[in-house]
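Structure in, sequence out. Go:
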C-alpha cells in the first residue's frame, strides 16, 4: 500500500483550476501506454516481428486520431507536441512556398514568434481576441501585392488565455478568396475538449494538437497535413512519418494520446454542459462579491471551461501568490509565459487597458473539476483580493 506522506496530503488538498495549462492524465491513457514502456518497447521502424507489433500499435493510434479529426489516417503526423506542430506549420509552409506567413496578434507564441521570425504580418483582433476578419482581408491584399504572396495563414480555434472561439469558416473564406495559394493552419490545441474537430478539419490544411491538453501525456502531439499539401519538415534525418517528421516515434505517447482523444470526443457534449454551469457559478460569485471585477469576454463567445476575469487595481502576481498559499492552482496568462509576469499580449491585442489587464486571472476547469473545487476557488479569490486591497489602503 502506498505511503500517504505529507507531500501526498498536500497534493490532495490542492484545488486545480489550471486545465488550460495542462490536464491530469486519464487513467485509461496511462493504462494504454504502460505496455509500450516496459513490454512492447521495440522501435516501430524495425523489420522484425517485435518492431511490427510496435508499428501496428502506432498505426492503430493514428487511425483513432484520424477518426476524431475526420480525416484519412495518412494525414496524421505524430509530433513532439503542440509547439513543434505549430512551428512546423509556419516554418515548413513558408520555406516550401515562399512569401510570408500571417497570423493574429493573439496567437500562442509558438505561432506568433514563428511568424515574426519569418518577417510575416500580424493581424489585429476583435474585442474577444479573435482575428479581425476585415483587417485580415486588408493584410492579405497587401501581402500578395508587396511581399511576394502569402505562405500560410494561422488562426487559433480556441484562444488559450481567454477561451474565445474563432469562426474558422469565415476566416477560411477570406483566405481562399484573397490568398488561394496560401495554406490555412489552425492551432487547435485548446479545442479538443470543447469543439467537434470534425467540423474544423475540412476548413483547414494544417491542424495542431497537443496530448496533454486533453488527458494525454506531455511531449506528444499531432500535425494534421491535408492530402496533397507539402511542407518542409522541421525535423529531418530518419524519414519517419512519411518523411514529414523524422525521429523514432513515441509509440507509448501516441497510444495514450489516441485513447485520451477518443474519450474526450465521447464525453465532450456532457462535459461542456456540466462545466459551463460550474464556470458560471464561479464567475457569478466573483462578480457578486467583489467590486471592480469584469468578465473579460462574453460567455457566449468562449468555451465552457474558461473563467477569465480581470480585477482592477490588483497585480496578478500578488494575487497568484496568495492563491498558491491557499492551495489554489491558477494562472494569469499562458503557462508558457507565466514567469514573465508582464501584461498579456492577448489582452493587449484586445485593447484592454492595463489598469484591468495587470489584474488578469485565468481560472480554467476540466474533467476532474467539482462543485467543491469552484466554491473553494471562489472563496479563495474573494479572500485574496480583499486582503490585497486592505493592505493597499492601510
Amino acid at each position: 500500500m502506498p505511503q500517504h506522506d505529507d507531500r501526498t496530503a498536500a497534493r490532495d488538498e490542492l484545488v486545480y483550476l489550471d486545465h488550460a495549462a495542462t490536464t491530469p492524465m486519464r487513467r485509461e491513457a496511462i493504462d494504454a501506454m504502460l505496455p509500450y514502456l516496459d513490454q512492447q518497447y521495440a522501435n516501430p521502424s524495425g523489420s522484425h516481428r517485435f518492431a511490427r507489433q510496435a508499428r501496428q500499435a502506432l498505426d492503430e493510434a493514428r487511425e483513432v486520431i484520424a477518426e476524431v479529426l475526420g480525416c484519412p489516417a495518412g494525414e496524421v503526423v505524430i509530433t513532439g507536441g503542440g509547439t513543434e506542430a505549430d512551428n512546423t506549420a509556419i516554418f515548413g509552409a513558408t520555406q516550401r512556398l515562399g512569401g510570408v506567413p500571417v497570423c493574429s496578434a493573439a496567437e500562442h507564441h509558438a505561432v506568433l514568434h514563428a511568424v515574426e521570425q519569418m518577417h510575416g504580418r500580424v493581424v489585429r483582433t476583435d474585442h474577444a481576441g479573435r482575428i479581425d476578419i476585415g483587417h485580415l482581408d486588408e493584410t492579405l491584399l497587401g501581402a500578395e501585392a508587396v511581399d511576394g504572396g502569402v505562405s500560410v495563414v494561422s488562426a487559433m480555434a480556441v484562444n488559450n488565455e481567454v477561451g474565445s472561439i474563432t469562426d474558422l469558416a469565415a476566416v477560411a473564406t477570406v483566405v481562399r478568396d484573397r490568398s488561394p495559394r496560401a495554406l490555412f493552419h489552425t492551432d487547435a490545441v485548446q479545442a479538443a475538449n470543447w469543439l467537434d474537430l470534425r467540423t474544423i478539419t475540412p476548413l483547414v490544411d494544417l491542424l495542431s494538437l497537443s496530448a496533454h491538453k486533453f488527458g494525454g501525456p506531455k511531449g506528444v502531439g499531432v500535425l494534421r497535413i491535408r492530402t496533397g499539401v507539402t511542407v518542409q519538415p522541421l525535423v529531418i534525418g530518419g524519414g519517419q512519418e512519411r518523411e514529414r517528421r523524422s525521429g523514432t516515434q513515441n509509440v507509448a505517447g501516441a497510444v495514450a494520446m489516441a485513447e485520451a482523444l477518443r474519450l474526450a470526443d465521447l464525453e465532450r457534449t456532457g462535459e461542456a454542459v456540466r462545466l459551463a454551469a460550474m464556470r458560471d457559478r464561479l464567475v457569478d460569485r466573483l462578480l457578486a462579491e467583489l467590486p471592480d471585477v469584469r468578465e473579460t469576454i462574453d460567455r457566449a463567445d468562449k468555451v465552457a471551461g474558461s473563467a477569465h476575469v480581470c480585477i482592477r487595481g490588483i497585480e496578478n502576481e500578488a494575487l497568484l501568490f496568495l492563491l498558491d498559499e491557499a492551495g489554489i492552482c491558477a494562472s494569469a496568462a499562458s503557462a508558457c509565459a507565466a514567469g514573465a509576469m508582464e501584461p498579456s499580449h492577448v489582452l493587449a491585442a484586445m485593447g484592454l487597458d492595463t489598469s484591468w489587464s495587470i489584474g488578469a486571472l485565468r481560472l480554467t476547469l476540466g474533467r476532474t473539476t467539482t462543485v467543491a473545487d469552484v466554491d473553494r476557488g471562489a472563496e479563495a479569490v474573494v479572500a485574496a483580493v480583499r486582503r490585497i486591497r486592505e493592505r493597499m489602503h492601510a
